[in-house]
Specification:
Elements: H1 28-36, E1 40-42, E2 83-96, E3 99-110, E4 116-118, E5 121-123, E6 130-137, E7 140-142, E8 144-147, H2 149-163, E9 176-179, E10 182-184, E11 189-199, E12 201-203, E13 206-211, E14 223-233, E15 238-242, E16 249-254, E17 257-267, E18 273-279, E19 284-291, E20 299-307, E21 320-326, H3 334-347, E22 355-361, E23 365-367, E24 373-374, H4 377-388, H5 398-407, E25 416-422, H6 433-443, E26 449-455, H7 461-470, E27 474-478, H8 484-495, E28 498-509, E29 520-524, E30 529-532, E31 537-543, E32 547-557, E33 560-570, H9 581-601, H10 605-618, H11 638-649, H12 657-671, E34 680-685, E35 692-701, E36 704-709, E37 712-715, H13 720-724, E38 727-728, H14 734-743, H15 748-751, E39 757-761, E40 764-767
Parallel strand pairs: 2-14, 21-22, 21-25, 25-26, 26-27, 37-39, 38-40
Antiparallel strand pairs: 1-2, 2-3, 3-11, 4-10, 5-9, 6-7, 6-11, 8-9, 12-13, 13-18, 14-17, 15-18, 16-17, 19-20, 20-31, 22-23, 22-24, 28-30, 28-32, 29-31, 32-33, 34-35, 35-36, 36-37, 39-40
Helix pairs in contact: 3-4, 3-8, 5-6, 6-7, 9-10, 9-12, 10-11
Length: 768
Amino acid sequence: MLSRNCDSRQPSEMQRVGSMRTVGLATLVGFIVAALLPALVTAQGVLLDIRPDHPHRLPRPIHPPHPIPHPIRPPIPRPVPTSYKIQELAVNVNLVDQIAKVQVSQSFVNTGSRAMEVCFVFPLPYDGAVDRLTFLVDGKEYDAKLLNAKEARRIYEGYIRRNQDPALLEWMGTGMFKTSVFPVPAGAKRTVTLRYSQVCRKLDGLTEFLFPLSTAKYTSHPVENLRFAVNIQSQVAIKNVYSPTHSVEIKRPNDEHAVVQLHHKNRIPNSDFRLFFDVGSKAVGASVLSYRPEKNEQGYLMMLVSPEIKKQADKQMKKNILFVVDRSGSMSGKKIEQAKAALKFVLNNLNKDDLFNVIAYDSEVESFQPELQKYNDKTRKQAIGFVEGIFAGGSTNIDGALTTALAMLQDNKRPSYVVFLTDGLPTAGETGLTRIVANAKKNNKVRARIFNFGVGYDVNSRLLDKLARVCYGQSLYVRPNEDIEEHVSKLFRRIGAPAMTDIAIKVDLEGQDPEDGSAVNRLYPRDAYDLFTGDQLVLVGRYKNAGNAKITVEGTVDGKKQSFSFPAKLSKKSKDETNAFVEKVWASRRIGEIIDEIDLQGKNQELVDELIKLSTKHGILTPYTSFLADDNVSPQDFANNRGRAERALSALDEEFGQAGFAQRDAKAKFQRAAQAPAGGAAVYKSAASGKSVAIHTIQNVGNKTFFYRNQCWIDSAATEDRKKNARKITRYSDEYFELVTRYGKDVAKYLALEGHVIVVLNGQAYEF
């Protein structure tokens, strides 16, 4: 939403909806977003003075470009005659089948010294999506006019030319609602409510809900309180629910209902809010999205797979589960009490007829029972009594504990899980790391999944990652100030109800010959996996040939092999960047796999080069490529950058301690990435501290990455030859705006970059 400061003494023509001069754009995502944005907004999204000699630009957070070692300079205070404070923004959506009813409620206070006459512009998520809008201020309804894409573009373009501000370019190409003017006296509070209905579009069988948020980055301060609540209802069972832009909380009360929630405090949104869901009658649902920006290069695909919701415990798949807990001397005090509480949580939440056991180890290994026990009230009480008798003391016999646990698992008809907890290094029994891993692999005869919990900084994180790799599991790390019970209970809530195990996915492309090889490659996650009730598999990969395909999902349900087939289409050439996030998610996961290979197998030049290229192209900084934030480093200088990366990768030699712990934790986040990297400044996570730092010499914009070099934002795709032959255009000229028409509205976000810019479009570099 855009808001503007309108002088009531100006001619009424200046206040009309269609006036180009008076338009101050705060998109619903400006006001909403403004609401979504700032706690204290100076000339937000828009407080625009309509007098020609008082132009106003949209506000920006004050983050001047700096290499990583330099601190961000604080803003210089200056008087603000017109400003407002956003107290809260709440977006509630009721999404039934394909129709979304949206209500936005926002409270704000005029913190300036004079009254404001404000109006708001709401850019449509996509043209023609919204059929009506109601705009209320403290309960009083105001008029809102719908403008088509052509009219909207004229207004956007006029505003941009007049104020020499490209910020609104990214919304060119869709229509808008523009509201009438209303007053906000100095110091007054207003509650604004917007209601509209929207027909959601469908993409490859997925229904998409899109809420414009990205203009919220044009603000001087973060949003105090941002809430989203999306209630999805369907007459057919809902399968996949996925957001490519935000990490959301998803609750699934039943097959036909899902609730999606997002709550941020003091955050500057950098991307629009997108949400997908699909429906189906099969026990497993699958959908495929593809993206291929260049037809002569391999494309990217994302597959979403979800099982049906199990409503009753007696319908849930029976499983074997072993809890192996460290009781060595280093676990004494708070840690052992938290571990025991976690054990009790698991024991109180098993299902009838599950088979289980508890193993406690220090230098000796002790089992609750010599073999797996059938879960019932009697065995539950006996096991809790065993847990109460666990006390910390002694050394750490990791090999003995795992050997004892895996020997109990002989039946491969049920899925088997080992929850293994340790807080230190192996100091008793077999202590050789290579031998411990080899023994675990040899003794795991039923493909049990081992979930490792490394507690504190004294664990050997490389050992745990190797165990997870050979035993089809995952390593999770608990910092010293974190609660073991919380982490274990969160994992068990997920794995407590297997729906389909040992899943294999096959892609058959229509017309592809066997000698062409597999239709897809470099799929991540790459190993066999299980699906749990309420879970969702996000699988990403590459494909060479386009066309119609059949996806087959095979797995075991209650001991029986089952198979489900779904149609899919792999794009030959994507017409826009709608599915560009698929490439970004794949790049994040591929980076995680590369780091894992280097960590567990050692460095080689090909992997190091690929890591640098992916990090450069996609603006995904790792602890080993953070040197790209230095504005003295050329992103195209691969020879020197290889040396920098190899030196940084030596940090992976640290097997334990805080640094080793943080590196494996960061690696796992890349491997499990489910959302594309956020727009705006690139984020670097320090392996030493684990803290995230925004890097303002690198910007992720749309599907591109820009580096700030020699006072210019340079597209990562700009080679020396392309820069030399760049076509120079003048900002705000007709040719500048025509680029949007020529290349499509996705290009607008690149033209909206501040300052000197070089961008590559369809192989041609443009400089402005």
